Amino acid sequence: MTHIRVRVENLTFDFGTPLFKALSFVIPCGVSLVQGGEGRGKTSLMRLLAGDLHPASGTVQISGAAPHEPSQIYWHDPRSEDWNELSPRAWCAKMRARFSRFDDMEWNALAAHLQLTEHMDKAMYMLSTGSKRKVNWIAALACGADVLLMDEPFAAIDMANIQKLHALLENWHTRKTSAWVLADYQIPENVPLAAVIDLGE
């Protein structure tokens, strides 16, 4: 039986305008996709899953723990400015302190694979949007969390590195030890999906 990592029941949320009403779904281990048109609430749903926002009603369970339990969930909004003064190396140190299963060897290997090694000691504000997205990726891949939330994960990343990330996700699908939840417009190429949450156009 597939292990369920995320269980959402009767989620209702209003963010200026109604976004969700009695939304229910489960996300098993593997790679899942939250899709929908502009303004349909993809980012808000990710923040609800992460515990950054709280629903008007309904419940979110992450691996049986509270949604804000830091060792269970990796989430960082790549548009946030709260890491701008940090370098990727300093971000790695923060993630190492937060996640007990953080893998330094994986971090270093992924940094090299995604051509980030030369940027490790630069402040985030000095990096391109695509490079910051890649830092977000390698932190998620190395952290060992049960649930990994990524919003618009391929935005501003060049096609060669998108293909590398698709291959990493395809490999991850075969392991099925964690749940990746990607919020995006398009389905990742060649990546089998465990679940799709369609918020509509």
Q: Which helices and strands appear, and what pairs or packs with what?
A:
Elements: E1 4-15, E2 17-28, E3 30-35, H1 42-50, E4 57-62, E5 73-75, H2 88-98, H3 104-113, H4 129-143, E6 147-151, H5 159-175, E7 179-183, E8 195-198
Parallel strand pairs: 3-7, 3-8, 5-6, 6-7
Antiparallel strand pairs: 1-2, 1-4
Task: Describe the protein in words.
The structure is a single chain. This protein has a single domain (4-198), classed as P-loop containing nucleotide triphosphate hydrolases (Rossmann fold), CATH 3.40.50.300. It is 31% helix and 26% strand. Helix 5 (159-175) links the parallel strand 6 (147-151) and strand 7 (179-183). The strands form two sheets. The chain has a five-stranded parallel beta sheet, with helices on both faces. It has helices at 42-50, 88-98, 104-113, 129-143, 159-175; strands at residues 4-15, 17-28, 30-35, 57-62, 73-75, 147-151, 179-183, 195-198. The two termini are 32 Å apart. The longest helix is centred in the C-terminal third of the chain and has 17 residues, at 159-175.
Strand-and-helix sequence, N→C? EEEHEEHHHEHEE
Q: If strands are numbered along the chain, what order do they take across the biggest sheet?
A: 5-6-7-3-8
Low confidence ranges: none
Structural class: alpha/beta
CATH class: Alpha Beta
* DSSP E strands, number: 8
Note the beta-strand portion: 25-35%
> Which value, in Å, is the CA radius of gyration?
16 Å
Share of helical residues: 25-40%
Oligomer: single chain
Calculate the mean pLDDT score and round it. 89
By DSSP (H or I, 4+ residues per run), the number of helices equals: 5
